[in-house]
Amino acid sequence: MATGTEGLGALFSALPFILQLFDLIGVALLVWFYGGIASRPLKKRPFYVRIPALLASGFVAAAASLSLASILPLPRDGIVKILEIGALVSGLLVAGLIYLGLRFLTGFKRPDPLRDIAAELVRLRGLLLKEKVLKPITEKDAKLAAEKAVGGSATKAELAGSRYLVTVQKGRHSAMVHIDALYGNVERVNYPLPVALLYDRPKLYGTLLLLLAITLAFANFQGFPSVSSQLAGLGINPQELATVGAQLQNQMAEGCLETLFALQKAGNLNSLAEVKNATLQKQFEGQAQAKMVSLRKLPDDQGLVAIMNNSKACYSATEYCGCVDLAGAS
Q: Where do the domains of the chain lie, and which CATH numbers do they carry?
């Protein structure tokens, strides 16, 4: 019996840590769930890109599930409240915004079985150009094509594989123009951020959607709820349970539990046989930090109980166990 109570005391003592662990696990599951939805556009990217994006987007969506739930026009009671449907809808809404934002930023590319073949042909053409089997256009022609596409002044052209990379200065900003080295066509134009957003509408839309998601998530965010706060709302204080657990552990020396039960059954302690022992009196007074009124022997040699002048009864089995209020012992 003592072993079971010791285990209960250890459990109560560890309760704050256990509840914090539950909080971390709960938040981690929410982040992983929402992040798995929001970061799907990056599922084919390297893990060092995909995993941070999953965690970041999941955290934003999880935060939004709390900050938006209070303002969504949903019922506040019944099954909606019990299942936290408002929080779920809020998190999914923001996860969807992040998903669309990343889609705009990465491009809406449909699966194309011919894309790999085309990439291999481009690589082969680059090798043929490098070995001069095919003759590329001149740097001058590449610069002219880039200037015509962007409207600035070309400063540098470099042959890279099957294309020319032409740097074009346009006002205060520069652009990198990719020119097909064989035919002189403009493949694409890269602008530095944030200038690129002005020329690339999909990236602009994607950035705005991500900013909107972050704003919605943290505009009213007050932190993640904890299990401890939920229990406190029910009138249960985990810290008090931890204190009780520590007391149980301290009182579970050999025989202490049986002695405590005997003390609680004894009724009127003054009716018990009195013991005169100056050494024991000194020990009880030292442990309890109070003066002893009398020392009594529990029935069937189940221990000793010292009645103290501070309305407490201290007891011992083979060694000192602890004290209880006299009102609780009777």
A: 2-109+206-232 (no CATH), 115-191 (3.10.450.40), 253-329 (no CATH)
